[in-house]
């Protein structure tokens, strides 16, 4: 019996050690990725004029919206189905091609609906007509390739090809940084060139992912009607939440665009770049922990994983809020002298970024298991909260917009957490 316990302990410890070093290696690669992205972002902030940076901020505000609407629960369906068939190359091929077919249809509808909104927001920011057209073309091209990357990445995540994911992320970040540096030195960097650099990097990423996934699955497998039906059932459940989160997630920039000025758009866009600090942790958990959470079963194991993820994010959130509150000026130096007026608000940026990251991770844990929080409860509570905040705060002030962003992130975090814990409680031991 003692020998059996020792063997079980040694085996468990070995698995923990392997998981730790795998996570640590990917985390370090993501530190490199986020560092390069941070440098790229700060170069763009410092080089672009405020009007140009306002255009760039508007584009990067609507890109996540278009990505979410083009997905609209398809990724959730792929993950929910894939966790059962991830070792079967034929079935994974059918799943990938079914997901890609559905995403192309959703993307076309999204471009038709959101494209004019992007053009209007750029026009309202006084961008010339030709600039608006080429910015829209480059942006929509990047989104198309990014949707392909997302499906390919799910295959690699489910099969835990962590090294490949890390290498591709590093290559993409380095390529984008190099392009921005070249454009800054050789040309006059503007919103178009900054967006073009991002799109070129996304195309490189999609090419790498396709080359990595293609040999692993039956690439020419037909679409599967059963998978399509399952995905559509999840799309129907997630669509109201997706549309709502599209609005809620980018509402600070939209409110500033409506109530404020181009300079305020630039201010918000610049300081929120500091939230990239949380992107490292978020990317690591999304790539390593969430697929494992999706594949795991058992109430105790899922609850322990939940506590580990939430505790680590909360600790980092507390650290960065305190640091930016006490020592804001090193961060302002990174942004440039144009943004010294934002020094007293950086801790609010960190708090909002941390709340949104934590809410996104907890929501992602739900989706990875195919658990969809009920929109009939989530949307009214969050909507009423935001209406109350809009009526209470002066949204022509940058500080109040950041306060709005912090407080608006609390209801989705609480609701996603409560729903996740209730679903875990129903799981068998």
What percent of residues adopt helix (DSSP H or I)?
over 70%
Report the biggest beta sheet as strand number plus sense, adding barrel if it closes.
none
Question: Cα-atom Rg, whole angstroms?
Answer: 22 Å
Total discrete domains: 2
Indicate the mean pLDDT.
77
The portion of residues forming beta strands comes to: under 5%
Give the end-to-end Cα distance, rounded to a whole number of Å: 23 Å
Total strand segments: 0
The global form is: globular
N-to-C SSE string, H for helix and E for strand:
HHHHHHHHHHHHHHHHH
- Count of separate DSSP helical elements: 17
- The helix/strand class is mainly alpha
User: Low-confidence parts lasting 5 or more residues at pLDDT below 50?
Assistant: 4-11
What does this structure look like?
This protein is mainly α and 429 residues long. The protein folds into 2 domains: 33-236, no CATH class; 250-429, no CATH class. 84% of the residues lie in helices and 0% in strands. The protein has 17 helices and no strands. It has helices at residues 2-47, 50-71, 74-85, 89-124, 129-158, 162-186, 191-213, 225-249, 251-259, 262-271, 276-295, 299-326, 329-335, 346-368, 375-392, 398-408, 410-426. Helix 1 (2-47) runs antiparallel to helix 11 and helix 3 (74-85) packs parallel to helix 5 (129-158). The longest helix has 46 residues, at 2-47.
């Amino acid at each position: 019996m003692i020998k059996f316990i020792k063997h079980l302990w040694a085996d468990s410890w070995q698995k923990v050690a392997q998981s730790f070093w795998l996570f640590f290696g990917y985390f370090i690669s993501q530190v490199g990725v986020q560092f390069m992205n941070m440098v790229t972002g700060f170069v763009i902030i410092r080089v672009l004029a405020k009007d140009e940076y306002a255009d760039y901020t508007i584009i990067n505000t609507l890109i996540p919206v278009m990505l979410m609407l083009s997905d609209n629960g398809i990724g959730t369906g792929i993950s929910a189905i894939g966790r059962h068939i991830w070792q079967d190359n034929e079935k994974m091929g059918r799943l990938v091609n079914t997901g890609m077919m559905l995403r192309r249809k959703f993307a076309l509808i999204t471009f038709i609906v959101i494209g004019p909104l992007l053009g209007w927001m750029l026009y309202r920011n006084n961008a010339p007509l030709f600039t608006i057209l080429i910015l829209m073309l480059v942006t929509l091209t990047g989104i198309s390739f990014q949707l392909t990357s997302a499906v390919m990445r799910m295959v690699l995540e489910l099969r835990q090809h962590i090294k490949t994911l890390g290498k591709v992320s590093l290559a993409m970040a380095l390529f984008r940084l190099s392009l921005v540096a070249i454009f800054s030195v050789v040309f006059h960097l503007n919103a178009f060139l900054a967006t073009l650099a991002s799109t070129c990097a996304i195309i490189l990423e999609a090419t790498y992912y396709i080359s990595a996934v293609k040999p692993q699955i039956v690439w020419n497998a037909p679409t599967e009607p059963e998978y399509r039906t399952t995905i559509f059932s999840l799309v129907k459940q997630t669509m109201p939440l997706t549309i709502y989160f599209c609005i809620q997630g980018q509402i600070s920039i939209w409110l500033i665009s409506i109530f404020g000025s181009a300079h305020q758009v630039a201010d918000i866009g610049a300081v929120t770049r500091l939230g990239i600090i949380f992107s490292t942790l978020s990317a690591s958990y999304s790539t390593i922990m969430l697929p494992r959470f999706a594949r795991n079963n058992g109430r105790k194991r899922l609850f322990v994983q939940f506590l580990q993820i939430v505790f680590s994010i909360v600790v980092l959130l507390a650290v960065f809020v305190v640091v930016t509150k006490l020592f804001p000026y090193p961060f302002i130096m990174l942004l440039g002298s144009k943004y010294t007026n934002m020094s007293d608000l950086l801790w609010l940026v960190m708090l909002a970024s941390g709340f949104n990251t934590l809410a996104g991770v907890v929501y992602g844990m739900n989706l990875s298991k195919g658990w969809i929080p009920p929109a009939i409860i989530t949307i009214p509570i969050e909507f009423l909260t935001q209406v109350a905040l809009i009526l209470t705060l002066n949204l022509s002030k940058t500080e109040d917009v950041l306060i709005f962003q912090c407080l608006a992130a609390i209801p989705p975090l609480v609701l996603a957490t409560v729903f996740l814990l209730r679903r875990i409680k129903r799981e068998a031991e």
